[in-house]
Amino acid sequence: MKILVLAGDGVGPEVTGQAVRVLQWFAQNRNLDLRLTERDFGMTNWQKHGTLMPDETWEQIQAADAILFGATGSLDQAAVIPPEERRKGSLLRMRKGLDVFANMRPVKMQPALAEGSPYKPRVTEGVDLIFVRELTAGMYFGTPRGVETLPDGTRRGVNTHTYTEAEIRRAVRFAFELARSRRNHVTSVDKANVMEAGALWREIAGAIHKEEFPDVGFEHMLADNCAIQLARNPTRFDVLVTDNLFGDLLSDAAGAIIGSLGMLPSASLSAPDAQGRRRALYEPIHGSAPDIAGKGIANPLGSILSVAMMLRWSANRPEDAALLEKAVEGALAKGARTADIASPGEAVVSTSGMGDAVIAALENAAR
Ligand code: IPM
Ligand code: MN
After folding, report:
1. Spatial distance between the Cα atoms of 352 and 19, rounded to a whole number of angstroms
2. Residues near ligand 1 with C-beta < 6 Å?
3. Other Cβ atoms within 10 Å of 179 Cβ, number
4. Could you tell me the CATH number of the domain that includes residue 88?
5. Which pLDDT tens digit goes with each residue over 234-250?
6. Is 282:102 a contact under the CB 8 Å cutoff?
7. Residues comprising the binding site for substrate?
8. Stretch 306-321: mean pLDDT, rounded?
């Protein structure tokens, strides 16, 4: 497996470093054939090369079987780098260029963290849901976009929410297929009551259910209602499928359930090519967290659990993926806590301390 590591900005290098350690453990102990390449991404590139994304990095991105991405964005980035360059070198360009439309964001309650959640244990117990967020269209990419000056001299910011039938169809199909391997239920989330693109989304999702997946439980839900259902009764969900912007907002909101965004992994996949291979981008859903960068206190579990998704979806090693997920559960059960998931009075480990705890749990499980 050719893996390109793009650790990026802020806490990216710290958390990704622990995820790479875990990958190397699988290479050494479970015969994972691993070829790792690392490249700078983001501000480091800008400082070294005067561009966020050198052409050579873009070639590496396209040649990789899978990409392990850390985080991007820093406050000075917005101030220093011109908008065209930001767009060219951005995470969004990578998502679009790789056409990784299916962004999976699992939210699974860790029993050991029940006390760390802002929600009551009776609400969080057994939460095991997954978002399929459409990642390459919608509000993030629609045109026209920009800031224009009106005849009266004032400015207007413009973004456009667009979805073609094909873009909706492939995301929704992906969600139905995923549901068949889980608890067999899909919730399709839109604002069909307000948006034309939402009404089209609803029409197509309903038709795909009826014509192709009648065996899968299905419901439509308005996005605002979905926000409150996620807070009140998150165990009612299995697979949620939604557009790029709602998926961004709702997955963060769902992250609150398990206590810290630092815990959440993601995988983004393209359609399979003729050989059945999908392009794949793995990243924790948290950002670069500049306020805690460089302190060695960030939670690496979002990145480590993204490696588990990589083992499942790119390496086709479901047993290794499960082994790693068990090891994370085991490390937490033994009390390993980074600051973001520690309850008052609990001892705290560093970023690399959490990596140690996961590796120890892997050693234990393999013995
Ligand atoms: C995410 C992030 C990104 C997004 C940002 C960093 C562009 O918030 O992956 O959820 O909005 O998609
Ligand atoms: Mn987000």
Report:
1. 10
2. 73, 91-92, 248, 285, 287
3. 23
4. 3.40.718.10
5. 999 999 999 999 999 99
6. no
7. 95, 105, 133, 224
8. 97
Specify the pLDDT at position 197. 98
Same domain? 126 vs 59: no
How would you class 68 by CB atoms within 10 Å of its CB: exposed for 0-12, middle for 13-18, buried for 19 or more?
A: buried
Q: Which ligand is nearest to the CA of 288?
A: 1
- Residues 236 and 127 occupy one common structural domain: yes
pLDDT tens for 25-62 read: 999 999 999 999 999 988 888 888 888 888 899 999 99
Q: Which protein residue has the closest C-alpha to ligand 1 atom 10?
A: 248
**CA 27 – ligand 1 centroid, Å:** 30
What is the whole-number distance in angstroms between the Cα of residue 191 and the centre of ligand 2? 19
Q: How confident is the model at residue 12 (pLDDT cuts 50, 70, 90)?
A: very high
Q: What is the ipTM of this complex?
A: 0.99
Q: Which residues are catalytic?
A: 140, 191, 224, 248, 252
Q: Which of 344, 354, 358 is nearest to 298 (CA)?
A: 354
Same domain, 244 and 128: yes
Query: What burial letters (b/e) apply to 8-24, b meaning 16+ CB within 10 Å?
Result: bbbbbbbbbbbbbbbbe
* Ligand sitting nearest the alpha carbon of 253: 2
Atom of ligand 1 nearest to the CA of 92: 7
Ligand 1 centroid from CA 248, angstroms: 7
